[in-house]
Specification:
With about 525 residues, this protein is of the alpha+beta class. It folds into three domains: about 45-80 and about 215-285 and about 510-534, D-Maltodextrin-Binding Protein, domain 2; about 90-200, Dipeptide-binding Protein, Domain 1 (Dipeptide-binding Protein, domain 1); about 295-505, Dipeptide-binding Protein, Domain 3 (Dipeptide-binding Protein, domain 3), CATH 3.10.105.10. It has helices spanning about 15-20, 80-90, 140-150, 160-165, 185-190, 205-210, 255-265, 280, 310-320, 325-330, 360-370, 390-400, 415-420, 440-445, 460-470, 475-495, and strands at about 1-5, 30, 60-65, 95, 105, 110-115, 120-125, 165-170, 175-180, 215-225, 225-230, 245-250, 270, 285-300, 335-340, 375-385, 405-410, 430-435, 495, 500-510, 510-515, 530. Strands 2, 3, 10, 11, 12, 13, 14, 15, 18, 19 and 20 form an eleven-stranded mixed beta sheet that branches. Strands 1-6-7-9-8 form a five-stranded antiparallel beta sheet. Strands 4-5 form a two-stranded antiparallel sheet. A hairpin with a 5-residue loop joins strand 6 and strand 7. Helix 9 (about 310-320) runs antiparallel to helix 11 (about 360-370), helix 14 (about 440-445) packs antiparallel against helix 15 (about 460-470) and helix 15 packs antiparallel against helix 16.
Length: about 525
């Protein structure tokens, strides 16, 4: 069996690199922020309204600004990045992926797999408790994954549910995962925010009324004016390293309002900076801008099941209109990296050395003529300002496409309905994908034929078979070659334009000390202090 290092009880999870060196693969991916089946609504007491921040911070209180309030406190039903941040504070999964994209033990202390990658055994840390005082046991892990695997719940972890056949408790602190097919990616998949372990018998209703996990912070309440308040869980084994005593999440209707709140001292941190506000934030000496290379990306989505995008030549014509370096400058102000119409970012060890597609207006006109559109096309492109860059991307690309005779009418819709009513549902729209740490999820979620999060609805049996082979391959060099081939197929045949990769771009007051940005944008308050806090 392949052994993974055991976490000695005296070490925190931030001390594990020397124990994990060489065991993990450097993987990167993307996960869509689009809608999933609607969870049960939060009770009235936890429905968050427009933000009315407190004027002054309290000792050891860290306030973070976000765009969207959580729709649910049930980790299994979470799909928005803002919900993920809440999940990582309230809950813990078996595994954490560190900032070097290596798997580290969290609720699990060690794990091992059989040579065929079909059976994985995880040993839990003993003495861990939920916020309600109950012990964390193997039965809780089994219950958590039985919920995730239940097809009647309609949850969105497609790659995970396809991989796992069943989960069993071997003893009080040992769990085995039995897979449907060999899968080298399981440790990365078990670090997803949706896999936070919940107590046996927990339901969406009970978790929405009172979230109970084993994370470093526990739920206090939802406060007037759209605020969520958490406090440090004293029984967490790393509690002494979580020196921020309380965390408040503040929700704002616009990105500009978040910047205003930071500059006014109403919050200490912005999780996702609007590039239009970057200059005025940079001008303030008490504000620090943090940039972390990431696998986040945005897409121009052409649904391959809807005319005219059923024709590969039309899709290739639109791709030929994109001036990627110019889009990187106009949309991202030069931050981030160039995209090549496939979802694997430069930060991934699996990225292929493919040529950068160049803008070619004459080629675009030729392809349109061959597809029966010699006089060009008129298209409606739907977008939103739900995430920084989405609106500018649509507007900039429409100007580029006009050079080839493609008239694009850009329609902006409200951010609060975009992912539920438009993203993944209309023929031509702008998408936004968060960073996923699993290379399998990178492709499977976005491009596998049966994935509910395949926003372009394009797929091919050739790619499906390739991805099935890749995730079952234990040899890293062979897996690398398979994923390189997958990138080329998506680049040439796929139905999305991926012009750039967005970095994690955060802003915080200088008094926030010890914060480390994560490539996935995940927020972890381990080791964070507030200068001058009591």
């Amino acid at each position: 069996m392949t052994k993974f290092p055991h976490l000695p009880p005296q070490l925190s999870r931030r001390s594990l690199l020397k124990w994990l060196g060489g065991t993990g693969l450097l993987l990167a991916g993307g996960g869509c922020t689009g809608a999933e089946p609607s969870p049960e609504p939060l009770p009235d007491a936890t429905v968050l309204a427009a933000n009315q921040p407190t004027p002054h911070a309290q000792p050891s209180l860290l306030r973070v600004a976000f765009s969207n309030p959580p729709r649910t406190f049930d980790p299994a039903r979470m799909a928005l990045l803002e919900e993920y941040h809440v999940a990582f504070a309230l809950y813990e999964a078996l595994i954490w992926i560190d900032t070097d994209l290596l798997p580290q033990p969290l609720l699990a202390s060690s794990w091992e797999t059989t040579p065929d990658l079909l059976t994985w055994t995880f040993v839990l840390q003993q003495g861990r408790t939920f916020h309600n005082g109950a012990d964390v046991t193997a039965n809780d892990v089994v219950y958590t994954f039985e919920r995730l695997l239940d097809p009647d719940l309609g949850l969105s972890l497609f790659a995970l549910t396809q991989a796992i056949a069943r989960v069993e408790a071997v003893d009080t602190y040992t769990v085995q995962f039995h897979l449907n097919a060999p899968n080298a990616e399981l440790p990365y998949m078990l670090a997803a925010p949706q896999t936070g372990i919940v107590p046996t018998a927990a339901t969406t209703s009970t978790l929405n009324a009172l979230p109970v996990g084993a994370g470093p912070y526990q739920f206090v309440d939802s406060l007037p004016g759209g605020r969520l308040r958490l406090q440090r869980f004293p029984e967490h084994p790393d509690a002494e390293n979580y020196q921020v005593q309380a965390v408040e999440y503040h929700y704002f209707s616009t990105l500009a309002a978040q910047a205003d709140a930071l500059l006014a001292g109403h919050v200490e941190m912005i999780a996702d900076v609007n590039l239009r506000d970057l200059t005025r934030l940079q001008e303030q000496p008490e504000v620090v801008i943090l940039e972390v290379p990431s696998g986040r990306y945005q897409t121009l989505v052409m649904q391959a099941t809807e005319a005219p995008f059923t024709d590969l030549r039309v899709r290739q014509a639109l791709k030929a209109c994109a001036d990627r370096p110019l889009l990187l400058e106009q949309v991202m102000h030069g931050y981030g990296g160039l995209g090549r119409d496939h979802p694997v970012a430069p930060v991934s060890a699996f990225v292929a050395d493919l040529p950068l597609p160049e803008q070619n207006i004459e080629r675009a006109r030729q392809l349109l003529a061959e597809a029966g559109h010699p006089n060009g096309l008129t298209l409606d492109l739907i977008t939103s300002d739900s995430r920084p860059g989405m609106l500018v991307l649509a507007e900039s690309f429409s100007q580029m496409a006009a050079l080839a005779g493609i008239q694009i009418r850009v329609t902006r819709v409200p951010a609060d309905v975009y992912w539920s009513d438009y993203g993944g549902k209309v023929p031509f729209h702008v998408g936004n994908w968060n960073f996923r740490v699993s290379i399998d999820e990178t492709f499977t979620l976005a491009h596998y034929s049966t994935s509910p999060q395949n926003e372009s609805k394009w797929s091919t049996p050739e790619l499906d078979a390739l991805l099935d082979r890749a995730r079952s391959e234990a040899n890293q060099e062979t897996r690398m070659a398979l994923y390189h081939e997958a990138q080329q197929i998506v680049q040439e045949q796929g139905a999305v334009v991926i012009p750039y990769f967005r970095p994690v771009l955060m802003a915080m007051q200088r008094k926030v000390q010890g914060f480390t940005g994560h490539p996935a944008g995940w927020i972890d308050f381990y080791g964070v202090t507030l200068e001058g806090a009591a």
